[in-house]
Amino acid sequence: MYQSPRGTSDILPEEQPYRLYIEKKAADIARLYGYKRIDTPVFEDTELFLRGVGGATDIVQKEIYTFEDRGGNKLTLRPEGTAPVCRAYLEHGMQNLPQPVKLFYMEANYRYERPQSGRYREFHQFGYEAIGDSDPVLDAEVIDMAWQFYVSLGISQLHLIINSIGCSHCRPQYLEKLKTYYSTDTQNLCKDCKIRLEKNPLRLLDCKNDSCRRLAASAPKSYEELCPECAEHFSKLKTFLTVLNLPYEIDHCLVRGLDYYTRTVFEIQPEIEGAQSTIGGGGRYDGLIEELGGKPTPALGFATGIERIAANLKRQNLSVPTTPGPLIFVAYLGEAAREAAVNLCSQLRKSGFAALQAPGSKSLKAQLRQANSTGVRYTVIIGEEEIKTGTVQLRDMTTSQQENISAEQLKILLGKSNQ
């Protein structure tokens, strides 16, 4: 038998209420903060991610799905949302709009990762980007928006982790200190970190290997090596977070996994059985627009995994609104009544009432069993007598009471039930 590809999953009907709930909350929060929706293609020019995400990142080195189309173009399935949004910002002249331009998206992304709990090869994200302003008050607003999104979902015991990784002026000096520190103890570095030491030393701090984590704990701190402009930006961010009553922790090992980040980086984590696991994060990427061919343009954003959010809702036993099912089932007795049932179902649906009808030529008893299994509130029964009198038999499935009413009375009753 065929199965879904490894690292992917079917989103079954019973899972859909979680998706709908999360997506509605995400759209509601975006509206409150002035963000408008954008949808980008599921695949892009591979070079967009090589330049934007960074050729030395794990995503580009190990995880992207890349292919060549029939025209010889090298394309990549979207592994993340920020670079495509920035490409769209440039391509469609959004730099000429009032800044910052605020955009949000809900999309599927693809990375060839080792599947595990909360990590898939096809995964879904909600994210937002604020492009065109360097004010640290915007950093605080984006973090606040992320925080309020989780709060609106009912997720509790949240932890906000922040750091500043500097800019193109002060980061090179910091990276040299970092390389010097790690070079004295390379025998305790994992295989990947030995490569990172040469190609991407900032990611040394992000390694999950135990020996690498122990080294990272005493590594030089980026927020202590900031230039005056970055130091002032970080100081103001902390002030604004205090104004917003957002408790935060500073973690010098927080660097995020993409090369485009500058200055502010942050993650939000819910407490899970004494441990912590990130469900969302983001930061500034003030050099990305320029790297993609535009003018220097400050920007920042945030993204969160919908699968991880759904898992946290379940873990915390948080209920979500269920999708209303059909209100009425139309049963019939005889071929003539079957035609009348088809017509009645059609009329009910056109009037906005969700209605079901049994296919085939099932007995009335079998139809009633099916009606009971669907969970409808009412069952309508049509037979020869009802056709003659223009009425229907209405059975309340919760009380088993049954009465003979007209079609117009039926619509009035259903209308009250829908309220």
Q: Could you please describe the fold and organization of this structure?
A:
With 419 residues, the protein is an alpha+beta fold. The chain folds into 2 domains: 13-170 and 226-315, BirA Bifunctional Protein, domain 2; 328-418, 3-Layer(aba) Sandwich (Rossmann fold), CATH 3.40.50. Helices cover 39% and strands 22% of the residues. The strands form 3 sheets. Strands 1, 5, 6, 7, 8, 9, 10, 11 and 12 form a 9-stranded mixed beta sheet that branches. A hairpin with a 2-residue loop joins strand 9 and strand 10. Helix 1 (16-32) packs antiparallel against helix 5 (136-153), helix 1 (16-32) crosses helix 11 (306-315) and helix 5 (136-153) packs parallel to helix 9. The protein is elongated. The protein starts with 15 loop residues before the first helix and ends with a helix.
